[in-house]
Design brief:
The protein contains 3 helices and 10 strands; from the N terminus they run E-H-E-H-E-E-E-H-E-E-E-E-E. It is mostly beta strands and 155 residues long.
Length: 155
């Protein structure tokens, strides 16, 4: 049975209807920071359980509820969530991590290095420069992990 995780980042206070449409079918949501408004997380919690961290723009009192990094185990896979991949200070393989989720760059990227899956869903919030508006889903199935990038402007 497939378990689907929605991965979103850099909403900066804007939760697009297109993002909600993609996320309505997921079993868990990971928000990789730069939330921008606590109502974003409240809305996401109405869809599925949420693991969220704070990013560099999340500085209000409300943001204290969120850690800078999180470990979450979903369907037997260990995820490590941090906002800026450049601040990674642990050894993922030694920690037994299967997936590293990050945001910050606003550039979507899925990459596997040495059996470790890196997912940056890009930015689902306000456009920055000419970067795309995206999020990702990750299907966790018995035969492996299937990450998918979703361009929210394509419909």
């Amino acid at each position: 049975m497939t378990f689907t995780i929605g991965i979103i980042s850099d909403t900066h206070g804007l939760l697009r209807p297109e993002a909600l449409r993609v996320l309505t079918q997921v079993d868990h949501i990971i928000h990789a920071g730069d939330i921008g408004d606590p109502e974003i997380i409240n809305a996401l919690r109405g869809i599925a359980p949420v693991t969220a961290i704070r990013g560099n723009v999340d500085t209000g009192k409300w943001a204290a509820e969120f850690a800078e990094t999180e470990f979450v185990r979903l369907r037997g896979r260990l995820f490590y969530v941090l906002h800026d991949l450049n601040t990674l200070q642990i050894e993922p393989v030694a920690e037994g991590i299967d997936v590293i989720v990050s945001g910050h760059s606003h550039m979507p990227k899925i990459n596997t290095v040495g059996g470790l899956l890196y997912v940056n869903p890009g930015s689902a919030g306000r456009r920055r420069f000419k970067l795309p508006i995206t999020l990702a889903t990750l299907e966790v199935a018995p035969d492996g992990l299937k990450p998918i990038l979703h361009d929210l402007e394509v419909g």
